[in-house]
Amino acid sequence: MAQAEYLGAGRVPRLPVKAGLGAVTALAALLAFVFGLDHLLRPDTFPVRQVSFEGTFERVSQEALARGVADAVTGNFFLVDLETVRRKAERVPWVHRASVRRRWPDGVHVRFTEQVLAARWGDDAWVNVDGERVELGKAAGPADLPRLAGPDGAHAQLLDHYRRLSALLEPAGLGVARLTLTARHTWEIGLDNGMVLIIGREEPEPKVGRFARLYPATLAGVADQVKEVDLRYTNGFAVQWTHRNNAGAVPRGEG
What we know:
By secondary structure, this protein is α/β, with parallel strands linked by helices. 28% of the residues lie in helices and 24% in strands.
């Protein structure tokens, strides 16, 4: 059985001296840490003084990047929200990806890559090589890129089809200048020689592949007289000519 020590009336137990000193020291250390942290994180302590950028600077200017992130790189060096800086950097026209890090003792460093555009999307947007929709604002994009048009959100699908169709047509010396998927889900291709291919609802690759094989022996010599080629046939195609005297003729290309 445990025994309790009787101290007697008026006697108070005394804490060991070492324990008391330890508690006081710990409290002093905690207060010093709190006050030190408060001082360290004040906006006027360790302010951000430098913002540096790293990238190709072909389409993006350093001035545009600086303006884009300016309101996110102020204040205390340790409190700068690097994720916010990254998002703001990626909103700058022509910036594709950005990464941000602190640079001791008073800097923020932004590294970025520029957009590489693959096609025009509709009238006011673009598609990059990764199949992502790109908004350039008032910045002008390249004038020689193919134009894709289709339902909202279909830009990656059309870019994929554009690449496959271009590979099929290249051996015949033809290129895709325009690829459209209508609201009724029918396909239409505008070639770089001005000719238009009407595909229909089916996947365009099989019919375009057949057309590319037949084209050199059937239409290559009279391509400047062809307005439209209808590929909605099982084993061939029909031609609409640019000249009035040929407008009623609908020759078939067998394949």
